[in-house]
Prior knowledge:
It holds the Pfam family Glyoxalase. By secondary structure, the chain is α+β, with helices and mostly antiparallel strands. The protein has one domain: 2,3-Dihydroxybiphenyl 1,2-Dioxygenase, domain 1 (Roll), CATH 3.10.180. The chain is 17% helix and 39% strand. It has two helices and eight strands. A hairpin with a 5-residue loop joins strand 3 and strand 4. The mean pLDDT is 87.
Amino acid sequence: xxxxxxxxxxxxxxxxxxxxxxxxxxxxxxxxxxxxxxxxxxxxxxxxxxxxxxxxxxxxxxxxxxxxxxxxxxxxxxxxxxxxxxxxxxxxxxxxxxxxxxxxxxxxxxxxxxxxxxxxxxxxxxxxxxxxxxxxxx
Length: 138
């Protein structure tokens, strides 16, 4: 799998509706994972909120999105990130080192509960980034 760059949108509780709308607009295949599915919330109202979604289209578009995590403030202007993902560990760690240098790390680049190595940072220009390293498809 080659590395890819795509937008990642954050929503204030309506990620499911928004991503289903984008599927109607662009077509493609939509995957939705809730906080409950991925172990982020054991129960309650947050369990059905979207922790991660991905729309992939026949045109080659990839759009990702999620509801703002519990406890994080949602405000316009912080509702997007640029996501870089793939399975080339060295390449993606190199991107992470450069993007996070002189920036702010929100989530350190480390193994997460869903199995990927993942991190979030804001670069020195104020652009938020997500780096996700998947296991090579063997």
